[in-house]
Amino acid sequence: MRRKRINKTIFVLLTVILAFSLLSCGNKTANTDNPTKTVTVQLSVTYPQESGKANLESYSMNVQQGATVLQVLEAYCGQNGIDVSVDAKDSYVTGINQVQASSNTGWVYEINGEGIMKGADKQTVKNGDSIVWRVVSL
């Protein structure tokens, strides 16, 4: 009699454990409340002629929505093994692909043909933006 009671108790416990296991597996759903959204941008880099570097012409890439111009540049350079130098104090780009700014030149960017006065670490990009980096005389 006692053996039947133990078997019945074990059966009930296993049934309860199985039921909870099935219920918890059934409730797992993909997190669609906050999926990562991306935007597509075009990136170009125009090097000074004397650098001997080939320009990057309109490279299309997907980046996370809310990415900054600096993050776009760093992502491209990181994916392609290209050095990018950034002044840690003010996030100013001082060099791309070993082409360094000098005392009378500097790296600047424009978006959709317009010069932007915001730092590259503060300017976010939108879907379809075209970003061009180039060296200018100061």
Low-confidence stretches: 18-31
Q: Label the overall shape.
A: globular
Which sequence of SSEs, written as H and E, runs from N to C?
Answer: HEEHEEEEEE
| CATH architecture descriptor text | Beta Complex
Major sheet: arrangement of strands:
2-1-8-6-7
> Can you count the helices?
2
Radius of gyration, whole Å: 28 Å
The chain-level mean pLDDT equals 85
Amount of helix:
25-40%
CATH class: Mainly Beta
Strand content: 25-35%
End-to-end gap: 97 Å
Overall structural class, as computed from helix and strand content, comes to alpha+beta
According to CATH, the fold-level topology is Ferric Hydroxamate Uptake Protein, Chain A, domain 1
Number of strands: 8
Main β-sheet description: 5 strands, mixed
Q: Tally the structural domains.
A: 1
What can you see in these coordinates?
This protein has a single domain (about 40-135), classed as Ferric Hydroxamate Uptake Protein, Chain A, domain 1, CATH 2.170.130.30. By secondary structure, it is α+β, with helices and mostly antiparallel strands. Strands 2-1-8-6-7 form a five-stranded mixed sheet, with helices on one face. The chain has a three-stranded antiparallel sheet with strand order 3-4-5, covered by helices on one side. Mean pLDDT is about 85; it is low at about 20-30. It has helices at about 1-25, 70-80, and strands spanning about 40-45, 55-65, 85, 90-95, 100, 105-110, 115, 130-135. The protein has two helices and eight strands; from the N terminus they run αββαββββββ. About 25% of the residues lie in helices and about 35% in strands. About 15% of the residues are buried.
